[in-house]
Specification:
Layout: E1 7-13, H1 19-33, E2 40-46, H2 58-66, H3 71-78, H4 96-104, H5 118-123, E3 126-129, H6 132-142, E4 151-154, H7 174-194
Parallel strand pairs: 1-2, 1-3, 3-4
The structure holds the ligand N#Cc1ccccc1-c1cc(NCCCN2CCCCC2)c2ccccc2n1.
Pfam families: LMWPc
Subcellular location: Cytoplasm
GO molecular function: acid phosphatase activity; protein tyrosine phosphatase activity
Amino acid sequence: MAATGKKSVLFVCLGNICRSPIAEAVFSKMATDSGVVDKWRIDSAATSNYEIGNPPDHRGQACMKRHGVPMQHVARKWVIDSGATSDWNIGSSPDARGLACLRKHGVETSHRARQVTNDDFMSFEYILCMDDSNLSELNRRSNLVKNNSAKVELLGSYDPQNQRIIKDPYYGSDEDFEKVYEQCARCCKAFLEKN
Ligand SMILES: N#Cc1ccccc1-c1cc(NCCCN2CCCCC2)c2ccccc2n1
């Protein structure tokens, strides 16, 4: 338990624009609906630096809207701050193409992609990722951090239907985003019930 007395979970995927923002939003809505969201620190991040500063993918935003999951609310409320490990983009605004796409779909959000930091391995109780590539990268990174205490696991390990991998939908379709949503919903429900 952190000094704040809160439980904490960081959802992680490759770019922090597709799977992990969906998992963060779904978990936060479930915790809110259960009346326990104030007991949790909830965030998401990327293993890569591909999309730092960019908003969630428009297909994921559209999927969240279809399911009535307030991604914008979650991002504004729970992303206390976000930042990059590098100084490459200091002062830059989010990628114009991503913001233009969101405006086209009438969807605004304040979540911006960030990369996992060494501090995350010391300050989050759980780091839940999507596939074996994320898992091996996170385990490699955690071994480099002296006081790492985070439990690094696959979010899919909580799936009652035992689908342990949540596949990257980046080159996929709206159906692929729907499958990401369904898997995140099952896994986040089971994870919340366990904690
Ligand atoms: N990589 C891979 C990959 C492999 C299989 C399936 C999906 C992806 C894939 C590709 C992406 N961006 C395109 C390539 C980025 N550049 C790669 C070389 C370095 C400079 C950056 C993604 C971006 C955001 C979230 C998920 C992504 N996932």
